[in-house]
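hey so i finaly got around to running the thing on Intein from Sphingobacterium kyonggiense. pasting the sequence first so u can double check i didnt mess up the copy paste, my clipboard has been acting weird all day
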Amino acid sequence: MNMESVKRIETAKIVTNFNGDLTYDVNISDFKCKLEYNFAKDGLIEIKYTFTPLIIDRTRPNQTTIWDKTISNIIEKYGPPTTENSKVKTWDLKDFSIKATLDNNRVGEIVEVSYTPPAPSQKDIL
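ok and heres what it spat out for the 3d tokens, dont ask me to read them lol
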């Protein structure tokens, strides 16, 4: 998919078009996030969602975090992760891979989810 194809199908308002990459502000599951389309050689190489930090209210024990909701949504759609630890989960699927990362800092939690085509195997390259 090239940049013009993405511009035609994306319904959100474009925020930046910098160095051939497109950025949009969108809402997903009631969370604000930046949606980035990254291109190389006029082809889409990555779609990345970076969620706005949510300040955790420590007095609300049942508060759903961006991380919990995001991981739950991905598992519901694609099944359990291929590999995982407490801050990184990956799904190696047939046509693309998904990597979800969690960074907790003083501001709150930052969740980043990227969708990329699978890396070619040595057999594909040679």
